[in-house]
């Protein structure tokens, strides 16, 4: 006599989850080093005694939104962003470009390290309302990450996750 079909019971499948059901796709451990690996470690700098005109030309030519300000030994002494220049333009219209970078730059620079988590750095930049963060390792400037770098990295991860999900579904 043939046996009739019985649908599986919950207890029949306990402990039999497949790997695809338990895969964690998001890399919560992405670091600043990962961001730098994706974008490069070029750092564009300027001296405090240079003029804002010099800085504006450098920003335009390099197509960046901020410059690291370094002393003669290469040590970080500040950061100059487009926002710093715009604020100064509003305060002293027509007299801004001849002023020195050192008089306008942000002197208390927030920094991060290569082992800092990318998500933590993104939160710091968002909460602090700044878009550029120099990366320091062993007291040496090794790069700069931007909020755009962090977002680009995350979007790339999301695209990869979507592709993995599609492959899991399609087989």
TrEMBL record:
InterPro entries: CBS_dom, CBS_dom_sf, CBSX3_CBS_dom, Diverse_CBS-Domain. SUPFAM superfamilies: CBS-domain pair. Residues 39-96, 105-163 form the CBS domain. Keywords: CBS domain. Transmembrane segments: none annotated. The keyword Coiled coil does not apply. Residues 1-21 are annotated as: Disordered. It holds the Pfam family CBS. This is Inosine-5-monophosphate dehydrogenase. The lineage of its organism: Bacteria, Pseudomonadati, Pseudomonadota, Alphaproteobacteria, Rhodobacterales.
């Amino acid at each position: 006599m043939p046996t009739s079909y019985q649908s599986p019971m919950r207890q029949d499948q306990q402990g039999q989850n497949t790997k695809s059901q338990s895969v964690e796709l998001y890399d919560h451990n992405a670091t600043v080093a990962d961001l730098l690996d994706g974008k490069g470690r070029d750092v564009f700098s300027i001296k405090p005694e240079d003029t804002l005109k010099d800085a504006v030309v450098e920003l335009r030519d390099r197509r960046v939104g901020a410059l690291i300000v370094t002393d003669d030994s290469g040590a970080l002494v500040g950061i100059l962003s487009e926002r710093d220049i715009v604020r100064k333009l509003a305060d002293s219209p027509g007299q801004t470009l001849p002023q020195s970078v050192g008089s306008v730059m942000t002197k208390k620079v927030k920094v991060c390290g290569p082992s800092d988590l990318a998500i933590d750095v993104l939160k710091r930049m968002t909460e602090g309302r700044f878009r550029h963060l120099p990366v320091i390792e062993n007291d040496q400037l090794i790069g700069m990450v931007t909020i755009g770098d962090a977002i680009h990295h995350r979007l790339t991860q999301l695209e990869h996750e979507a592709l993995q999900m599609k492959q899991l579904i399609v087989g």
